Amino acid sequence: MKPKNDHYDVIIIGSGMSGLTCSSLLALEGKKVLMLEKHFKFGGYTHTFKRNGFEWDVGIHYIGSVHKKNTFSRRVFDKISNNKLKWNKMSLNYDRIIFPDKCYDFIAPKKKFIEKIKEYFPKNASEIDHYIDMLREVNKSSLNFFAAKALSGISEFMLRPFLTRKFLKYADMTTYQALSSITSNEKLISVLTGQWGDYGMPPKESSFVIHCMIANHYLDGASYPIGGSRNIAETIIPVIKNNGGEVVKNCGVDKIWIKNGKSKGVILESGEKISSDTVISTTGVHNTIKKLDENKKVLNYYEKKVDSVEPSSGHACLYIGFDDSSKNLGIKDTNLWVYPSYNHDQNVIDFNKDQNNDFPVLYMSFASSKDPEWNKNYPSKSTMEVIVPSRFENYKQWANKSWRKRGQEYEHYKEELSQRIIKQVYKHCPHLKNKISFYELSTPLSTKSLANYRFGELYGINHTPQRFKQKWLKPKTPIKNLFLSGQDIVTVGLVGALSSGVLTTSVLLKKNMFKRI
User: Fold this and answer.
1) CATH number for the domain formed by residue range(s) 7-47+66-83+227-308+470-516
2) Taking CA atoms, which of 99, 231, 452, 505 is between 20 and 30 Å from 24?
3) Any idea where the domains of the chain sit in the sequence?
4) pLDDT tens profile 128-173
């Protein structure tokens, strides 16, 4: 497919959550927008795929806070989808943290969460209260930190230190350092960080602020998009089109067209030039930099900056199908987090040394139990997704081969990994033993091919303390009329990308879209 026109007000590169948000908001503001997607499906990590009569999510497993209509994220979703995107609230036990000796349930709402954790750790009640206070404090300070990303020039110079000081005090600590200042109970720390897979880094590596934002996000419960995560794009794209916007898939951007230090539009992989007043890249800073080859000055600027951050880790996901209903199989909607011991960081170190060691985390999600429309669309079928860490380095020998054409050796490697994962599924879900009727494994190479991340990373830039010190990770770039958006600009996850879209739109329009929404 190709764009219908040769000039637009705004071209948005990428149709993930931030691209969809920018495109919808700008179209609603009267801008003539063009959203370009390299993949054959819109939605980025919000899309789904089908095999053998089953359907799976590739990235969305549960979203916090959207069941409440007055929350910021829900208001944005309602606005950009014209109230068409609907949510199903999951059961109150949204996560179960599983260690070899004991399981710990995370229960909503926040009051119940606190009561349950105190029930597990009665001697640490006051420390748990202190922890909840810190979650609130960090999330409150994050508002000013992210607002500072909208600033530039003299206002940034004058106001940024004041706006970011409190947040950066927490951001400079690792999750483990911060929690160790609250409690000496190592088991409690391990349980509280039982969702570290949601941001991809164990406690001694991750910044405390990302832990706080993720943990706080789910305290009052989680929801799932009715009809599956593909409905996110499918409800937002009509809003873009109905307001004069255009969306084109199978249309990759080769270069951002820059002339005299200004963005003039994009050069497609076909060689065609499409001009625009403004370009927004939502494809991650590394991918955006690759499209700036002809502008050496800015390229050098970004390459020096990128050296100070690192890409996040890769993952493998086993997509499993059952020829029976979730009800008959006893599949619930609670996510399961399985750990080989309470020492998350040592588990990661051991696994990175030898991939045959225990998975440092194994995450199981059950979309067919979360979607109330599942049985209508897929009667007598159910699914699950199982995610484990998997390093890109283990797949280098097949990295230059095309998707689905990587040869038998690659398929054999995948099959061995699949069987390891299935063994763990049967161990922790014995009621599913020998019930699997279909499975397919994705690897970091799948992420590289379909999400266009160079090392198959899941979460863009790693959420280390160093990451949050980077002033340049903001919407405005040194190139006039070129803006950035996406999880690299704010934080990981659907709501991080959603917020980034609102932030970038605010900067571009010079309007406070947060306040308006």
Assistant:
1) 3.50.50.60
2) 452
3) 7-47+66-83+227-308+470-516, 111-218
4) 999 999 999 999 999 999 999 999 999 999 999 999 999 999 999 9
